[in-house]
Amino acid sequence: PAPPAFDTAPGSAFHDGAMAVYRTSQTLTEDQVQVARFWSDDPMLSPTPPGHWVSILCQIATRDRMPAERMAAALAVLGVAVADAFIGCWQEKFTHNLIRPVTYIKRHIDPKWEPLLITPPFPEYPSGHSVQSGAAEVALTALFGADFAFDDATHEDDGLAVRSFASFAEAAEEAAVSRLYGGIHFPFGNAGGLVQGRC
Questions:
Q1: DSSP string for residues in 18-72
Q2: pTM for the full model?
Q3: Which residue from 34, 107, 151, 180 lies 20 to 30 Å from 14 (Cα-Cα)?
């Protein structure tokens, strides 16, 4: 789906999306801050967004003593899904070329506002984390099932607590909303990203 049309009028869908980011940033709980940091996956500082999902798969493989042949097949399926997702995502990003929340909010709501996370230097819509998480969710659910519980210790060495999930869908939803908590994506960027990734 396309994003809402750009609009600065209060009450418009676009302005409402910006207000959701602005208000969320002012009421973040400690858990929401941790979620934002856990899924930040910054290049050069972490395994990156697709690497985070590879890390999840590797943790599952170790936990379940997965045979090498099954692990190789699972890595191939996940890798192709995430690569396809990012190609489609970047096509959409530069088709829509949408402004980021930090720019919109500083110009039209509060010039002193700052997001929790550093805003990446490319267009907003759709959220790349959401697209690749939706694709990873579908790929891993196809391999392991809809109610497959796992723990994610990807960032334990960085001092971030292990997070537990009842399903890949739950993890993908958290990865998507983490971008709202971080202040770097509108809610519609996260929702549209999950739709694209799952597709």
A1: HHHHHHHHHS--HHHHHHHHHTT--TTTSSHHHHHHHHHHHHHHHHTT--HHHHH
A2: 0.95
A3: 34
